[in-house]
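Q: What would this chain look like folded?
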Amino acid sequence: MHELLQAWQGAGATLALPASGLHVFYRDVGDRSAAPADTALLMHGFPESSFSFHKVLEGLQAHFQRVVLLDLIGYGLSDKPGGTEYGYSLMEQADVALTVWQHLGLRGGHLIAHDMGDSVSTELVARSVAGLLPAGFDAGFLSVTLTNGSMVLSLAKLRVTQRLLLTRIGPSLTRLVNKKTFVQQVRSAHGADTLSDEDVDLMWAVNCLQDGHRKSYLTIRYLFDRRRFEATRWLPALAATEIPVHLCWGEADAVARVEMAHYLKQQVCKSAALSLMPGVGHFCQISDPDIWLRTVLGYYG
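A: My prediction, written as structure tokens:
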């Protein structure tokens, strides 16, 4: 394992989920007595992990007294079970996040998400709107920042590999995935020439933990949920919520294109703040951490 990943793992811990026994990796950084208003809750994307925030963690700590990160099931340093053991639905992933936060005694915080994490976050917003967050999570979400995620699937430009993973040949396709094809897909999705070789190497290394690169046909199942619940549950929740919403978008994204951010602002959550990052691609907190920090934290003044 790369030394940076080893250090990241060494600074974290794991929690066995009560119902399944699956292990979730998390990091709880800073003052554990911090109030919800001083707490950031980070949610990673696909095919990523909490490690995707390693370049911005220090900057976040300069603003928030406590920062909590986790690897959802199937990602990073968390367990990566087969499809018969875990469904990989967005509802299940939202349950995982809430279980970790409750374990840590969190009452709420500012939710900051990326890519697939945006989709998990919309499920959490839907539960908030319906009054279905756990009783101990009484402070709830003080704000939700959504960055570069395919929250309006009809506007997304999925890569060929992403589309094929959702078909019957998905399991077979993962056996053909190697570093070369992974790098091609990541750079194609990013949309800007701003990811270093080391950035992509580390993404590949994280993806390969516990043969995760062979299970991407499972983790990408969340897109089925988007097709099913986007129009009936998640976008209406974003329209109805009283939680302050911040849409923070890299304009060069080739998958979750900037048109999506404009659509969300104009048609869904009209009261949301919209911040654009010119020249910044999909994996924004990795490729352009300084711009990401300045734009995300600028929302908080």
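The chain has one domain: 3-298.
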